[in-house]
């Protein structure tokens, strides 16, 4: 391998990142970030970009939730980007995911100019648009027709459109964000346990209950079921993941229409009743778990199955769990009514350029680089996806998902779920408020503090008030 | 109306002194206005508005509706009820255990100096770091608490923080672990400020042991006790950090204390409702403190009159 000046430059930048992370305490989080930078630098040594933009300079500040999947993927790709834009300084600022999403709203609500690029959850985009925080990427993509065609071909349409918010309040064609990160709610199961019991991943909710009953073994600390049921959007997502599979919706005539809440319905009742019933076979953490707690008990082998779990590549990561080969994923189950079907709630994090941020052209260049595929003639490289996957990320591009799927069963789950994906939340600014309110009621129901019907009626009442406040009925 | 004498008011020196006084006061007044009065007024106006964080364009005045919404919300009342029970129970436990601990530390046993330093450690730990540690300790399958219970004592493992019946009690345990030493230390300082003559007189009168602490010490350190109760009550009513870090108000709403409930409203983006809830919590704290101080004042007055008569 022959090293060039640019390789040395990439190593130098990675070294600076590591030193920066070592300031203060050497925590696990900092260590992971430093190792992502090292990975990026190693890949950068093999990277020979076809074009180098030495004349572009400036500083870009990117805000993202911290962790392997989000901020660390940025850190891993940075050394590659540095070789293409050697005079651009990229800074990654991160906060824990539990707080980052609220902080993004707060920053944008105050028209903060602190960040040039922000990674935001799909459910936030309508709210960000209502705050006038989003920059239309359309004009920036005008000169990148071939790149856009490649992106359109490789990223599933349904998934891509989530960031175009075409059904929301934005004008048609408004491209609010590009999303390198792909995600869906799917079934997680321990293949070894299922094989031993001679059962297959359940396809319907009644089968889910049977499977849970069969593999539940609390005496040996092997709990059948686990899900994120904390009293906020986590529990809300569980419920929405279930209701869509029974053919129900948040609103009567979703999408669009008059936004009349429709959770206190037969579909809603079936969805919540099954979640309540599943608690009998639940790992104890389920009652108040967020995604981290769920992954931990999946990783330590005390929970065996979840019909609905937000995707994460961490369970196929040998540095996270010894069971990384055993965790397999499948499309989420469906109900048994005529309108039921497999419908995977889809989410993920997309990049947007805040209206008040600076260096728009350079910020866009970074955003485009992170979203590039394997094609080197379009400014991409297979190394970009390698850096993202290596750091713990998950992808939205089908070609790169396929390339890695033999080593990451989770990516097979994504490939299976993308064709049946539906929006994880209605595309309205109130999405998070709705998720939170519904999540509280669902958490009360699964913990026996409210009966199912009362919880569903409360969901409808609270969502109606939220939508009324948002001026949707006037 | 009284004031400075006329010759002083009219003198040039007095005018200059007044200017200096205003100048010296100015920084404090500006800081108070900017950081306390303005936010309070702003929060007051906010509490009468719909002002969603996620959609500022629909913000508008809605009168008392945020308050009526809260009054009609059973979750709000549950959180207030939980908060009051929490504050009462936790303060009683901390006072009783703190008093016993203070008696122990007051004795001249060997190593009591070292013990005094050691028991203070929990007070200095950040509630966030402590909360995270206790969360791991109470983790149902791999936590230390269950490991000791099952391996050491032969009990079955239990889901301390994941069960609606025990989550709040577990939080109380952790809070008492952190704050009982603080209570003990203040009470100890009160005990050690009792005049040696009084202690000696009690001994001569053969008042010893528990009787000594109940008949002599408790009445003498009563003002200290009242101050500690007041500090702990206010702290416990506005409890947030430990509650948020360890359970976030769950499972369900079983540990949803008022401040955490208010923060949840903020997280959902309802700024007007959050401000209204904040004001009600403020009123609650003031109400409890007011009742407490009033009771204290009356009992002091009654005790003084009893002494006189």
**Total number of domains of chain B:** 2
In the CATH hierarchy, the architecture of the largest domain in chain B is: Orthogonal Bundle
Q: What composes the largest sheet of chain B?
A: 2 strands, antiparallel
Rg over alpha carbons of chain A: 22 Å
SSE-based structural type of chain A: alpha/beta
How much helicity do the residues of chain B have?
over 70%
- Quick check: average pLDDT of chain B? 90
Terminus-to-terminus distance of chain B: 36 Å
Residue share in helix of chain A: 40-55%
Quickly count the helices of chain B.
15
CATH class of the largest domain in chain B: Mainly Alpha
Number of strands of chain A: 10
* Unreliable parts of chain B: none
- The whole-angstrom Rg of chain B is 25 Å
In short:
The complex is a heterodimer of chains A (474) and B (309). Chain A has 19 helices and 10 strands.
Keywords:
heterodimer; A: 474 residues; alpha/beta; six-stranded mixed sheet; four-stranded mixed sheet; 10 strands; B: 309 residues; mainly alpha; MetI-like fold; 2 domains; two-stranded antiparallel ribbon; 15 helices; 1% strand
Layout of helices and strands, plus pairs?
The complex is a heterodimer of chains A (474) and B (309).
Chain A: H1 5-22, H2 28-44, E1 58-65, H3 71-84, E2 88-95, H4 97-109, E3 117-121, H5 125-130, H6 138-141, H7 145-154, H8 157-161, E4 183-190, H9 191-197, H10 205-215, E5 223-225, H11 233-245, H12 266-278, H13 291-299, E6 303-310, E7 327-330, E8 344-347, E9 349-352, H14 360-370, H15 382-391, H16 398-404, H17 409-417, E10 421-423, H18 431-446, H19 452-469
Parallel strand pairs in A: 1-2, 1-3, 5-6, 8-10
Antiparallel strand pairs in A: 3-9, 4-6, 4-7, 4-8
Chain B: H1 6-10, H2 12-46, E1 49-50, E2 60-61, H3 65-72, H4 74-106, H5 112-119, H6 121-124, H7 127-137, H8 144-152, H9 167-192, H10 196-204, H11 209-220, H12 222-237, H13 241-246, H14 258-267, H15 271-308
Antiparallel strand pairs in B: 1-2
Helix pairs in contact in B: 2-15, 3-15, 4-9, 4-12, 9-12, 12-15, 14-15
């Amino acid at each position: 391998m022959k090293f060039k000046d640019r390789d040395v430059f990439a190593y130098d930048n990675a070294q600076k990142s590591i030193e920066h992370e070592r300031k203060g305490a050497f925590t696990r989080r900092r260590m992971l970030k430093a190792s992502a930078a090292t990975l990026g630098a190693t890949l950068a040594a093999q990277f020979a970009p076809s074009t180098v933009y030495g004349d572009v300079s400036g500083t870009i500040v990117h805000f993202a939730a911290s962790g392997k999947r989000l901020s660390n993927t940025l850190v891993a790709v940075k050394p590659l980007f540095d070789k293409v834009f050697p005079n651009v300084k990229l800074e990654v600022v991160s906060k824990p995911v539990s707080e980052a999403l609220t902080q993004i709203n707060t920053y944008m609500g105050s028209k903060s100019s602190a960040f040039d690029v922000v990674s935001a959850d799909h459910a936030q985009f309508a709210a960000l648009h209502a705050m006038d925080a989003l920059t239309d990427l359309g004009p920036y993509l005008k000169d990148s027709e071939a790149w856009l065609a490649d992106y359109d071909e490789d990223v599933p349409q349904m998934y891509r459109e989530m960031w175009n918010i075409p059904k929301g309040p934005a004008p048609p064609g408004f491209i609010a964000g590009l999303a390198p990160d792909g995600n869906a709610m799917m079934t997680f199961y321990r293949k070894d346990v299922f094989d031993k019991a001679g059962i297959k991943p359940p396809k319907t909710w009644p089968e889910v209950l049977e499977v849970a009953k069969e593999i539940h073994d609390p005496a040996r600390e092997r709990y059948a079921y686990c899900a994120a049921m904390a009293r906020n959007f986590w529990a809300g997502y569980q419920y929405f993941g279930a209701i869509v599979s029974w053919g129900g919706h948040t609103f009567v005539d979703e999408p669009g229409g008059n936004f009349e809440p429709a959770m206190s319905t037969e579909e809603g009742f079936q969805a919540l009743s099954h979640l309540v019933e599943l608690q009998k076979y639940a790992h104890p953490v389920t009652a108040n778990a967020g995604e981290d707690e769920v992954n931990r008990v999946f990783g330590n082998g005390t929970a065996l199955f979840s019909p609905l779990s937000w995707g994460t590549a961490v369970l196929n990561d040998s540095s996270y769990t010894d069971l990384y080969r055993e965790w397999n994923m499948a499309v989420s189950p469906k109900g048994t009514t005529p309108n039921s079907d497999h419908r995977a709630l889809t989410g993920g994090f997309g990049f947007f350029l805040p209206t008040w941020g600076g260096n728009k052209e350079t910020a866009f260049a970074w955003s485009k680089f992170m979203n590039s595929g394997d094609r080197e003639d379009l400014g991409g490289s297979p190394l970009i996806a390698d850096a993202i996957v290596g750091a713990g990320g998950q992808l939205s591009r089908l070609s790169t998902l396929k390339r890695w799927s033999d080593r990451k069963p989770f990516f097979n789950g994504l490939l299976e779920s993308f064709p049946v994906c539906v929006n994880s939340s209605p595309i309205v600014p109130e999405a998070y408020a709705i998720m939170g309110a519904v999540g509280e009621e669902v958490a009360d129901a699964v913990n026996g503090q409210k009966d199912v019907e009362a919880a569903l009626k409360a969901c409808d009442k609270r969502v109606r008030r939220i939508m009324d406040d948002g001026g949707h009925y006037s | 109306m009284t004031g400075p004498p006329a010759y002083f008011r009219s003198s040039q020196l007095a005018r200059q002194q007044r200017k200096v006084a205003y100048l010296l006061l100015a920084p404090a007044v500006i800081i108070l206005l900017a950081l306390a009065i303005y936010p309070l007024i702003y929060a007051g106006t906010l509490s009468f508005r719909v002002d969603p964080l996620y959609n500022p364009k629909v913000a508008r005045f809605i009168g008392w509706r945020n308050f009526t919404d809260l009054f009609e919300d059973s979750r709000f009342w549950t959180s207030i009820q939980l908060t009051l029970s929490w504050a009462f129970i936790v303060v009683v436990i901390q006072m009783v255990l703190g008093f016993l601990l203070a008696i122990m530390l007051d004795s001249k046993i060997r190593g009591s100096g070292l013990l005094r330093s050691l028991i203070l450690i929990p007070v200095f730990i950040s509630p966030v770091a402590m909360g995270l540690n206790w969360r791991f300790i109470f983790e149902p399958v791999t936590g230390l608490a269950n490991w000791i219970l099952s391996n050491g004592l032969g009990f079955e493992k239990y889901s301390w923080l994941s069960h609606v019946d025990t989550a709040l009690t577990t939080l109380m345990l952790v809070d008492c672990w952190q704050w009982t030493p603080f209570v003990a230390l203040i009470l100890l300082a009160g005990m050690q400020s009792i005049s040696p003559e009084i202690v000696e007189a009690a001994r001569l009168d053969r008042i010893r042991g528990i009787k000594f602490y109940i008949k002599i010490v408790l009445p003498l350190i009563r003002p200290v006790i009242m101050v500690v109760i007041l500090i702990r009550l206010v702290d416990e009513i506005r409890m947030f950090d430990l509650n948020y870090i360890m359970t976030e108000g769950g499972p369900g709403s079983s540990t949803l204390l008022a401040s955490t409930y208010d923060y949840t409203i903020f997280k959902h983006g309802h700024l007007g409702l959050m401000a209204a809830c904040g004001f009600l919590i403020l009123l609650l704290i003031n109400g409890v403190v007011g009742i407490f101080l009033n009771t204290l004042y009356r009992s002091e007055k009654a005790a003084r009159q009893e002494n006189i008569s």
